[in-house]
Amino acid sequence: MKLRIITSAAIAAIFAATGVPVSSDAHDFKAGTLELKHPWSAKAPPVAPVLGAYLVIVNTGAEADRLVGGSTPAAERLELHESTLVDGVARMRPAKQGIEIQAGKTVSLRPGGAHIMLVNPRQRPGEGEKFKATLQFEKAGPVEVEFVVQSKAQAPSASQDHGAHTKQ
């Protein structure tokens, strides 16, 4: 029991340190040694041509994996992007090589950093609603997840413009 409490506290601390919202409706997905924690997206403005999507990926295995793409019926295209700060200016570009998740490491896809970009949204779910996407990993393969839509007030670092199932 004590170990379970300590583990839960450690997970909450990781989420707090990475800026990931912790809520009672958090939802996680698993694919082999990858754990996909709380996929979320901000509510899309009515005319936004793109929308960011975020999650935390934990690799509990001994081998690296790589998020290489994906798809969703909620948008025309799903792209992986990385953001950098160059001379005080935020720059965003496609992550052409995907996003590596090193063995035993955690990668946070979040506003202002690496993230998923939904191009030309077809759906604009409201706050609290969910939409499905399939994320493609180099080794783990395709993983179906659901992104929950949250208000920007709930979202960590909402300054960027641009939300367990097991796969064996």
TrEMBL record:
UniProt-listed InterPro entries: LpqE-like (IPR007410), Lxx211020-like (IPR058248), PCuAC_sf (IPR036182)
Entry's Gene3D superfamilies?
PCu(A)C copper chaperone
Pfam families xrefs: PCuAC
Write down what this protein is called: Copper chaperone PCu(A)C
Source organism: Rhizobium skierniewicense
